[in-house]
Amino acid sequence: GWPTILKIDIEGFGGRALAGMSAIIRTARPTIIAEIHDVREANAFWLLPGYLADTLPQRIYPYHVTFSPTS
Predict the structure, then answer these.
(1) How far apart (Å, rounded) are the C-alpha atoms in residues 1 and 39?
(2) Are 10 and 37 in contact (CB under 8 A)?
């Protein structure tokens, strides 16, 4: 079956992981737990369509966020 939770902690390359998993994310709509390391990576997660974060963006890196699908 499809994953229900994804844990992404790949030292600043989360945006690339999201791009590579885009079909899985669109189809499975898993909860995503991410460790965010920099602004570039943060933007990739915060702009993920159809997801809400459990916290506000931080200014101190790294930080952890859980992104839940909205539908």
Answers:
(1) 33
(2) no
Q: Which tokens is 8 given?
A: 């992404």
69: amino acid identity, one letter: P
Rounded-to-integer distance, Cα 60 and Cα 23, Å: 31
Write out the DSSP string of 5-26: EEEE-STT-HHHHHHHTHHHHH
10 exposure class (CB count in 10 Å sphere: 0-12, 13-18, 19+): middle
Q: Does the reported pTM lie above 0.85?
A: yes
pLDDT tens profile 3-14: 999 999 999 999
